[in-house]
Design goal:
Blueprint: H1 8-22, H2 26-29, H3 33-40, E1 45-54, E2 60-71, E3 77-83, H4 89-105, E4 112-117, H5 126-140, E5 149-152, H6 159-173, H7 196-211, E6 222-225, H8 230-241, E7 245-251, E8 254-258, H9 266-277, E9 291-295, E10 308-310, H10 320-328, E11 333-335, H11 344-357, E12 363-365, H12 367-370, H13 373-387, H14 393-418, H15 429-447, H16 455-461
Parallel strand pairs: 3-4, 3-5, 6-7, 6-10, 10-11, 11-12
Antiparallel strand pairs: 1-2, 2-4, 7-8, 8-9
Helix pairs in contact: 1-4, 3-15, 4-15, 5-6, 7-8, 7-13, 7-14, 8-9, 10-11, 13-14, 14-15
């Protein structure tokens, strides 16, 4: 029995990686990588601190702040800051663990990390949010830097919050440096950064469509999207631009479902973006004739026939039953815009279909590959900051497209190399992406002395790999 508390989200992220590595030929060809997995699964550093701030009534409030600096083998720790009442160490460790391999798949020199607080920005005034962000950054500032750890935004942290935090860091450390990404365009931000995760998701799926022989791409495809934040909004806009029809959006309270042939329009998305900026609910937008609002449900079992699904809200938003419903509805492609958007049971449904039905099956892409466009452009923002340059929209978009293409083919070709398959099967993108990201990080760690494969380590690797990780595989 482990002496560590249960961390269900982190355990799930670890198991997904472990199972795909174990069920490939990687460990057979390279048994020493079992040792690397033991090392990679433990963060280099976990920082926890209190955040004291004053509300508008003058009362003292206190929250927990965190930064998980998980792995720096490929570069400075890189990953977002999340402000949400659900934030705890398990969630941040899962996000940081995923971030290691996601960042590796971009091809950029970035390590993996994640942070945030259980502070809830909903219902707070601008002044309360500013006071919280300043207090949070005063504590965090001593542990981050442009060459050490470069946080970004995440749930609850947009341009406003990044601005408050950047200003606090600059005053606290007396440095104007690229310590945060997602900054304003007038003070070091990058064009395409708000759009990057959603656009990159669509670019990635475009390569899936092309590989599968879908000659008309997105044209006339029915696309179900969850979420209504930046990722969902910009994914929807790009799908519409490329000729697809968006049939759903959602938030934590319910879903908007298309009722006619028109689907979600760019005008709808603009209005929803404004609504969300003011922290409103999709239920306030239910009067539109082309959309109906369903309270308390996710969209997957309510959208009818669908060709492509893009979970873009939060973790574990597609269950086994919802995965089966998507398969029954004719869905052929699913790619995560959110981190760990599908449960392990849902992934099993998709992977079993892929193996059994081959080219007629649904094809699943994990978030660490499909949604890496956001952190990729964050990395490009870091490069621009280092050079004191600002690239054009066209330059950044071109680089984003190339990064998503490389992420797709890394996963595809690695799956062909390490995952046994029968003729006609699509390569497993979840296995290929996991292995490609893992191997890149493990090699860097080995060459810099974080682990080594002498005889003692080889003997240790024969033992249960999870014994030092605190949970069973």
């Amino acid at each position: 029995m482990s002496n560590l508390p249960s961390e269900p989200e982190f355990e799930q992220a670890y198991k997904e990686l472990y199972y795909t590595l174990e069920n490939s030929t990687l460990f057979k060809k390279n048994p020493e990588y079992r040792t690397a997995l033991k090392v990679i699964s433990i963060p280099e550093r976990v920082i926890q601190f209190r955040v004291i701030w004053e509300d508008d009534n003058g009362d003292l409030q206190v929250n927990r702040g965190y930064r998980v600096q998980f792995n720096s083998a490929l570069g400075p720790y890189k990953g977002g800051l999340r402000l949400h009442p659900s934030v705890n160490l398990s969630i941040l460790k899962f996000l940081g663990f995923e971030q290691i391999f996601k960042n590796a798949l971009t091809g950029l020199m970035m390590g993996g990390g994640k942070g945030g607080s259980d502070f809830d920005p909903k219902g707070k005034s601008d002044n309360e949010i500013r006071r919280f962000c300043v207090s949070f950054m005063r504590e965090l500032a001593r542990y981050i830097g442009a060459d050490t750890d470069v946080p970004a935004g995440d749930i609850g942290v947009g341009g406003r919050e990044i601005g408050y935090m950047f200003g606090a860091y600059r005053r606290e450390r007396n440095k104007f440096t690229g310590v945060l990404t997602g900054k304003g365009l007038h003070w070091g931000g990058s064009l395409i950064r708000p759009e990057a995760t959603g656009f990159g998701l669509v670019y990635y799926v475009g390569h899936m469509l092309e590989y599968a022989g879908v000659t008309d791409g997105w044209k006339n495809k029915r696309v179900s999207i969850s979420g209504s934040g930046n990722v969902a909004q910009y994914a929807a806009l790009k799908v519409i631009e490329l000729g697809g029809k968006v049939v759903s959006l959602s938030d934590s309270k319910g879903s908007l479902i298309a009722t006619g042939e028109q689907g979600v329009t760019p005008e709808d998305i603009a209005a929803i973006a404004e609504l969300k900026l003011n922290r409103g609910s999709l239920s306030d937008y239910s009067h539109k004739d082309n959309l109906k609002y369903l309270d308390g449900v996710r969209p997957w079992v309510h959208v009818g026939k669908v060709d492509i699904a893009l979970p873009s809200a939060t973790q574990n938003e597609v269950s086994k039953e919802e995965a089966e419903a998507l398969v029954a509805a004719g869905c052929k492609f699913i790619a995560e815009g959110s981190n760990m958007g599908c449960t392990l049971e849902a992934i099993e449904v998709f992977e079993n279909e892929r193996r059994e039905k081959k080219g007629e099956a649904i094809w699943y892409a994990p978030g660490k590959a499909a949604n890496c466009g956001g952190v990729a452009v964050s990395g490009l923002e870091m490069s621009q900051n280092s050079q004191r340059l600002a690239w054009t929209k066209e330059e950044v978009d071109s680089k984003l497209k190339e990064i998503m293409k490389c992420a797709f083919f890394q996963g595809l070709n690695t799956a062909k190399e390490y995952v046994e398959a029968t003729e006609g099967e699509y390569p497993s993108l979840v296995a290929g992406s996991n292995i490609a990201g893992f191997v890149k990080v493990a090699r860097a760690m080995k060459e810099t002395g974080d682990w080594w494969d002498n005889q003692l380590n080889k003997e240790a690797a024969d033992a249960e790999v999870t014994s030092d990780s605190g949970f069973a595989a």
